[in-house]
Design goal:
With about 80 residues, the chain is mainly α. The protein folds into two domains: about 40 residues, no CATH class; about 35 residues, no CATH class. It is rod-shaped and about 70 Å long. The mean pLDDT is about 85.
């Protein structure tokens, strides 16, 4: 058992849970930062825009999905 700042008792499992939460905070922050960078990458945004289009919308533009992807990220294909 341990004491909180208000001198109330807390269990060891609560202490360990809080400690684990504090130790994992930097890892979570790095992970969130990497997700943010990936989602805001112009290439990913272009792929998402093509992915959001229906086949009918692509057909109106005279493109197949493969052609649209090739146009969105030409350096990868």
């Amino acid at each position: 058992m341990a004491f909180q700042s208000d001198n109330s008792l807390i269990s060891n499992s609560e202490v360990l849970a809080e400690l684990g939460h504090m130790l994992l905070a930097p890892v979570r922050a790095i992970g969130n930062g990497l997700v943010y960078l990936a989602e805001n990458n112009p290439r990913v945004q272009a792929l998402n825009a093509v992915s959001a289009m229906t086949d009918a919308e692509l057909a109106e533009k005279g493109m197949t999905r493969e052609e649209a992807l090739r146009n969105a990220v030409p350096h990868l294909m």
